[in-house]
Design goal:
heterodimer, A: mainly alpha, B: alpha+beta, 19 strands, globular
């Protein structure tokens, strides 16, 4: 196990270095830079060149690259090019917000999708198609609704019509009641799609194991249907579900970008979009490293859970 | 910022309970102090006059700083600000008599002529690398014989010099000590002499301005202005309808404006704020022929398009200048819709069989409704308009380099000379400046330079009129529309006058 962790950690360092280098040069290959992104309609020529100097964009690329690596080695994420603010500071205030949204979404999704999927599988197994079709059909429709559209509909309905949640305002964890009110709608929007996917996967994998011998054995022992379903069937069907939960965390981080824009939430997704739009290399580089770390960590955690669930899995 | 374990647990528990979560009652009514909540539409990028960009940031700076002159919100005319009066006889030597007893915000003492010298020097200093240095490059000598007088001698006469010292960009006066105290965070610590001072900023959420109690005209009627960052216009419209904000800084979507108007919100508005021009790159073969350029203008019915696409936001325009500008002339060729004439001109130019033109635009905007109409109208005279969509920074870079066939540009300005010089003077041919059409007509250049130096207002006006006539005949730039800026608000918000730089002087704004 220790050897495994060490191997993983080494992989992580190499991966990070690769990501850093790739991102650094790719970003600079894209036409346009922070100066031209900012200057918009009004500046060009010499004035623009002055702005470039001000932003430190006129240094040779290789010098910029080593400057960056040197700073990164001591965990100095530097300042944004466009606003001159601490990247680490911006990430520190944005991260808890995005992670709260992602986390709440996963909790809500698991709480709703797994029972629903299991129920659908059970009904299908029993040959009672009506409820199964309803759940599967609804999941399909929800899955097809794009996030930005659902977001807008929720905003119109829950905020404008019902006045339940505000459309704007501060998002501050120090004020939990207000914070929850502000992240409620984004969490709902993200959950809708996630629930659809996870319910379908749960249904499929539970349905598969329901036909197995050990389920029949469990039933013949006279255990209740519920116990058979949740203790035996679900436990054995869990592997693909865990994979999906792990993977969905990744897609969730993408999803937050859209909902953060619509619901005007100052999270990591907003930082990333702004960084890309304004060609703020410093901001984007560090955010992408952060994303890469999250993905690697989630993968690692999924591996560990796998092992716990199925001792036959080896690394 | 750290989260305690308890908060994490409560968050997790709440995650599952969110569906049943209902909103609490709205907060208590505001205290005696007046607060105005305004939608701010993008991430703030800082408020240092030497490097400030974009209208939303300029709006903040406009209320924090002052210039020697400023613009009247209703008429666009130049009026006194830090200078009570000024004198010049030749547009070369300028004397400014400064207001006495003006106080800096945040306890930085009294404003004097030394601050003016420092501010202009800072802009012109190559170390500052200010993009606005060129605006003050014409200054040969500047001195302060006493604390309330500034004498400026220019290198060449400039009848538009009062625009350069207005409360805008390089004209905004800063305080030396405040700049030094702020170190490398000048843009986030603006200290000025204007009606409002910066109190707090969280670049991801809000900007708070507080009334500057020692403002030279007396304190502003509103104590606190809270700018809430809301990027999506759908959201900001809902926030206004929900009563979460009082005023929307710029609404740009016709459907939202219609809804708000129907529900009885106030539509604060400035018309003909700036003109959108289509830039013809004449280095490209067909566009080098004036008959082709004129044909393209005759082929498109902008009058009808603008009425259909955005009747409250766009009007048809026929000139590079705005009717409210003091040197505007109506004696110009106007290209009203005439497809037959367009076909005839194309045939004369040797394109009877048609031609293809590429328009550079941003993928963020996509193909706009206006462009869809343009494509359709041009097709009717045998011209194929192809769209080239790239992302915004790429677009900006290519447009500045002059690397396109046609593109559009909208340059807001109160100073007509700045528009004409930027677009038409050979010294500004891309990539050096905004003259992306590569216009270089010696006759017009001479007129333009002559008008700038001319002291007699009558003669000056006549020269500018001639410039406009020639420019619209040669048609290197074709007006598509003049646009309006609209800031919807609750009825109780008064005095929102948007000037021709799309700025609002919050000193005049009140909440009844």
């Amino acid at each position: 196990m220790l050897a495994y962790v060490v191997k993983k950690a080494l992989q992580l360092v190499v991966t990070t270095f690769g990501v850093v280098t790739l991102v650094f040069f790719t970003l600079r290959l894209i036409p346009g830079d922070a100066a031209s992104a900012m200057a918009g309609d009004t500046l060009s020529g010499e004035a623009l060149q002055r702005l470039r100097e001000q932003m430190g964009l006129t240094k040779p690329l290789i010098v910029q690259y080593f400057d960056y690596l040197r700073a990164l080695a001591v965990f100095d994420f530097g300042e944004t090019i466009t606003t001159g603010l601490s990247v680490a500071g911006l990430m520190r205030s944005a991260m808890p917000i995005t992670l709260s949204i992602a986390f709440s979404t996963i909790v809500l999704t698991v709480a709703v999708a797994i029972p629903l999927g299991t129920l659908a599988a059970f009904m299908a197994h029993k040959g009672r198609r009506a409820l199964d079709n309803l759940i599967t059909g609804a999941a399909m429709v929800l899955d097809l609704m794009p996030g930005f559209w659902t977001g807008l509909v929720f905003l119109l309905f829950f905020s404008l019509t019902l006045k339940l949640f505000p459309a704007s305002g501060d998002v501050d964890i120090a004020d939990p009641a207000n914070f929850l009110k502000r992240i409620a709608l984004p969490v709902l929007v993200l959950s809708v799609t996630q629930i659809a996917t996870m319910a379908r996967i749960t249904r499929t994998s539970v349905l598969e194991v329901l036909g197995e011998d050990y389920i029949r054995t469990a039933r013949s022992l006279g255990w209740s249907e519920l116990r058979v379903l949740f203790r035996h069937a679900l436990k054995n069907a869990a592997l693909p579900i865990v994979t999906v939960v792990g993977l969905s965390f990744g897609s969730l981080l993408n999803g937050t970008v859209i909902v953060e824009f619509i619901f005007n939430i100052p999270g990591i997704g907003s930082l990333l979009v702004n960084g890309i739009n304004s060609r703020d290399y410093q901001m984007v580089q560090n955010l992408i490293i952060f994303y890469a770390l999250i993905f690697v960590t989630i993968n690692f955690a999924t591996d560990l859970v796998y092992r716990k669930l199925d001792p036959r899995v080896t690394f | 910022m750290t989260i305690s374990r308890r908060q994490v647990l409560s968050l997790l528990a709440a995650g599952a309970a969110l569906l049943g979560f209902a909103a609490a009652a709205p907060g208590p009514a505001a205290a005696q102090e007046k607060t105005l909540k305004v939608r701010f539409y993008d991430d703030p990028a800082g408020f240092d006059p030497a490097s400030i960009f974009r209208i939303e940031n300029e709006n903040i700076a406009f209320n924090i700083f002052s210039g020697l002159t400023t613009y009247d919100g209703a008429t666009g005319k130049i009026i006194p600000d830090l200078a009570e009066s000024w004198e010049t006889e030749d547009n070369l030597h300028w004397k400014f008599n400064l207001r006495k007893g003006v106080k800096w915000q945040k306890g930085y003492g009294e404003f004097t002529a030394a601050d003016v010298l420092y501010s202009y020097g800072r802009i012109r200093d190559p170390k500052t690398a200010s993009p606005y240095a060129a605006e003050l490059a014409n200054i040969a000598k500047i001195e302060a014989p006493d604390p309330y007088t500034v004498l400026i001698e220019l290198k060449s006469p400039d009848g538009n010099f009062l625009h350069q010292v207005a409360n805008y960009h390089q004209g905004q006066i800063v305080n030396k000590k405040a700049i030094e105290d702020a170190g490398d965070k000048v843009r986030w610590n603006p200290v000025g002499t204007g009606p409002y001072a910066l109190d707090f900023i969280d670049v991801n959420a809000r900007i708070i301005l507080k009334s500057h109690k020692e403002y030279y005209k007396g304190p502003a009627p509103i104590d606190t202005i809270l700018f809430q960052i809301i990027k999506d216009e759908n959201t900001s419209t809902i926030a206004l309808r929900n009563g979460e904000i009082d005023l929307v800084m710029r609404a740009n979507r016709e459907e939202h404006l219609a809804t708000l108007q129907k529900e009885g919100f106030k539509m604060n508005k400035v018309e003909n704020y700036a003109v959108a021009l289509k830039v013809y790159n004449t280095a490209v073969k067909p566009l080098a022929d004036v008959r082709v350029r004129q044909a393209l203008a005759y082929a498109i019915d902008y009058e009808t398009i603008n009425k259909a696409v955005a009747p409250s936001l766009q009007f048809a325009a026929y000139s590079m200048l705005m009717p409210w500008m003091d040197v505007y002339s109506d004696d110009i060729p106007k290209y009203k819709y005439d497809p037959e004439k367009a076909k005839k001109l194309l045939a004369e130019a040797g394109y009877a069989k048609g031609l293809t033109i590429k328009q550079l635009s941003t993928s963020a905007q996509g193909v706009t409704e206006l462009q869809q109409f343009e494509i359709d109208y041009l097709a009717q005279v045998g011209v194929t308009m192809k769209m080239e969509l790239v992302d915004t920074p790429t677009f900006n870079q290519r447009r500045n380099a002059g690397d396109f066939e046609t593109a559009t540009r909208l340059l807001p300005a109160v100073n007509p000379d700045m528009i004409l010089f930027s677009y038409l003077h050979p010294s500004n041919i891309s990539p050096k400046g905004l003259n992306g059409a590569r216009y270089d007509n010696p006759k017009l250049t001479a007129l333009l330079e002559g008008a700038r130096a001319e002291v007699d207002p009558k003669k000056r006006k006549a020269m500018y009129a001639e410039v406009q006539k020639i420019a619209m005949t040669d048609l290197y730039y074709m007006p598509q529309y003049a646009n309006n800026v609209i800031w919807p608000s609750k009825q109780k918000v008064t005095g929102v006058k948007i000037n021709y730089l799309a700025q609002v002087n919050f000193y005049e704004v009140d909440v009844k």
